[in-house]
Design brief:
This protein has about 110 residues and is mainly alpha-helical. The protein is built from four helices and no strands. The two termini are about 15 Å apart.
Length: about 110
């Protein structure tokens, strides 16, 4: 149960810490990335407390995690009007989706060792 709670608490802490001006929308986007667990429906049994999600479920594989990292990093290189300007709205959403997915994968990875 703590694992599931962390999927809400860690994005909230990240949003408040790094996106304080828009923390409410940032946390909602990052929590929405929990939908990545839909790939658990492909497993038999759907839930196994002894199973490590990383490397087992299709959306929890290393190639998928590399894509999530790209979603997080690439929007930071998109064109801005000036260096002090924030990301464009679409770039911000993609960036936060990537961050939410990376947080999710990190929490699932830590859970593999407990």
């Amino acid at each position: 149960m703590i694992h599931i709670a962390l999927h809400f608490i860690v994005p909230l802490l990240a949003a408040v810490t790094f996106y304080s001006g828009r923390w409410q929308s940032a946390v909602m986007i990052m929590i929405a990335t929990m939908l990545v667990d839909i790939d658990h429906l492909l497993a038999d049994p759907v839930y196994d407390p002894e199973r490590c999600s990383i490397g087992f479920h299709p959306l929890h594989t290393l190639p998928a995690i590399a894509i999530y990292a790209a979603l997080f990093v690439l929007p930071m290189f998109w064109r801005r009007k000036d260096a002090a300007e924030d990301l464009q709205p679409s770039a911000r959403v993609i960036h936060l989706v990537g961050l939410g997915l990376l947080i999710h994968m990190a929490l699932d990875w830590v859970d593999c060792f407990t």
